[in-house]
Design goal:
The chain is α+β, with helices and mostly antiparallel strands. It contains 6 helices and 7 strands; from the N terminus they run H-H-H-E-E-E-E-H-E-E-H-E-H. It has a 7-stranded antiparallel beta sheet with strand order 2-1-5-6-7-4-3. The longest helix is centred in the last third of the chain and has 31 residues.
């Protein structure tokens, strides 16, 4: 394993830094490095963000360097922060291609990309991952309660560094369930208002007339 001067060196290779220097951003990122680079431990606020997500993209590469990105999803909490360096999740049965698992056996370097479209936030996490088979207790620990899926194995991700991006260019989107709940609440409010209008009209009709 290469020893890095800064945590951000996981992404800022000499070639990347040369391009940053040529395009004018190296000085700003150098200041970040002098402050220690990116964080390498999962802070409580980042842990809350991770465990609130219902979707994540897991990137791996095979022994020849060919990249692969796979989507993982589940109810909020399916991503579990086990400690300040480790994220775990149950690996649900799918199309059984096992590309991610094969890649990790040849090359354990991995990357997690999390994006929250409602809050327009994204977090990039570099690290190493491994598949854990035949560990029922770990699988049970990571399996979301009452979720109708079958866990085939577990994936443990050890964090090397993470960085949070600005919200620029992230479109704001909302979960279908949240939209349905908001519309249902709107409909209930409309119904209550209509009932109140009917009541007020009835009271007005019963009021004594002067004459």
């Amino acid at each position: 394993m290469n020893v890095r001067a800064f945590t951000s060196d996981v992404a800022f290779t000499p070639t990347v830094k040369a391009i940053q220097a040529r395009k004018g951003s190296r000085e700003a990122y150098s200041r970040v490095e002098q402050r220690g680079g990116w964080r390498e431990t999962i802070t409580p606020d980042v842990a809350a963000f991770i465990e609130a997500q219902t979707s994540v993209f897991l990137a791996t590469a095979n022994g020849e360097g060919q990249p692969y990105i796979q989507h993982r999803g589940g109810p909020a909490g399916f991503l579990k922060v086990l400690d300040e360096h480790t994220i775990g999740f149950a690996d649900f049965s799918g199309n059984r291609q096992f590309i991610t698992q094969g890649n990790l056996e040849d090359n354990d370097q991995a990357f997690l990309f999390l994006i929250d479209y409602v809050l327009r936030q994204r977090i990039k996490i570099w690290g190493r991952a491994r598949v854990v088979e035949d560990d029922p207790s770990l699988t049970a620990q990571l399996m979301p309660a009452n979720y109708k899926a079958r866990s085939e194995q577990a994936i443990l991700f050890t964090v090397s560094a993470w960085d949070a991006n600005c919200p620029q260019h992230i479109p704001q989107r909302f979960e279908a369930a949240d939209v349905a709940a908001a519309l249902a609440e709107r409909d209930r409010r409309i119904e209550r208002l209509e009932q109140e209008i009917v009541r007020l009209r009835g009271d007005a009709g019963k009021a004594p007339r002067e004459g």
